[in-house]
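Handoff note, outgoing to incoming analyst
You'll be picking up this chain. Sequence as last confirmed:
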Amino acid sequence: MKVSRIITSALLLVSVPALNAFPSYGYSIVSPRPQTTNGEWDARNDFTWIYQNQVKPSHLFDISLNFAQSFQPEELAAVIFGDSVINISGSMLPNRGNMDFMADQFGLSPFFASTVTFRPQYRSIVIPATAILDLDQWFGCHTYFRITVPFVWASTNLSVSEDIADPEENIPFPPDYFGVDAVTPLTSFTEALMRTQPVGALTEPLKYGRIACEQSDSRLANITCDLGLNPLFDDEHSLGIFVRMATPNARRPTAKFLFEPFVGNAHQWELGAGIKGHQRIWCGSGDNEFSVYLALALTHLFAGRQHRSFDLCQDSSGFFSRYLLVKTFDTDGNPTGNLAPLINYSTLPCKVSATFQLDGVFMATYLDRGLHFDFGYEVYLRTQEKAELLGKIPEKTLGIKGVQNTNDTITNLPINTTQHTATIFGPSYDAQIFVVDNPSPQFVSTDQLNKKSGLSPQILTQKLFAYLGYQWDCLHRGKAMQPYIGIGFDVEFQSGNEAEAPIWDVDNNTLCQWNIQWRGGFLFG
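Most recent structure output, in case you need it:
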């Protein structure tokens, strides 16, 4: 679609060009477009209010019920896990794959093997109530105030299925590898990512980045207020500007689970401005006409306190390294003999912000007496998130275990050997003596964290929508009252990497979803 490409290119020209080398997968968070930032709905309400047939009510009240569901689960799984299907294999299995997740890092047997499939799904129900109040009699220039109060229910489900190669055989860890004695491992990858019980020396439960069958959250989302004026305002055309503020009502992300359900703008203040207008293109002999509408809204997302989980930098252990096991050390640098998931310490409080988000809408509308049909295009752009860390990893207390033993094979005492080059993929156990840190231990520090892994990169989505409605003309005791009803449908796509224009790459990192809307309301006053 040529129009889509032109608008996309124009938006990217003004966006932050800080595209990074971090791969477009393995993020610890999936941050979709806020359900409450929806230019399509705003445009529909605006146009209903701007143009009214025959009678001229002053104010509008609108309420709608919207149901959205994601599609393309394979791409969404790749954002989180690198692929929709991953293999898990133990460090002692012969001929294990180079890209297999190492089972040992999750408390699974070094002889364990399974294939795990993910089909993530996102659903939401949004009920926004909007009022537009005409303030022209007080301030002139067709001044108005708009407030939208949305209730949001959001649900996420990773839809995990696991095929274990030999579920009856669960070979224990050898002595000194996960504790002094042989240790009975966990039995599945899905169990490992919900683990609350100790496994030998792995005494700490998994506190963050856990897998849940389904998560949901429901609450009042951010309230959005617009104060605007329309210097040009009549049936033929209009042109207006507005300032926008959104409140931080929704829950802050906690990072306790993978693929958290976001409600609204994740508890961040927003402030910005916009411009909008419409033009009548054609008017028939009756009450039928064709018009176009354009709106652009630009807001800044102020820093909000959240918890985010971070991997290590690429030159350390990189992708998914937050799930590596670490040895713990006391204040004197002596090994305690205990293990912990790195994510328990690489999940930190931080202040998260975004330079701006832009929501643009082009809509064409046909009116025929009370019949109302519109269709259009919407584009949403949010710049890469930024974070100021408010916590840190305790100094000289953690070292990556890799395939190193926890205890000395002769004395059975805790041993300080670490392996800072370990990755979530390996190496195999037989490389133990070749990959040990020399000298050991080498400690993990806050400076090694890759902040990009826990932050949403620049996201761009594009939407096509259509709507059919009917608006009545009613007079009661000399006052105008116009009720209306309607149904709409839209489909939203994330924008992928363009091979022919790599300089404008936008990672696949958010949701593709469709939405159906039932709408009703009335003009009055």
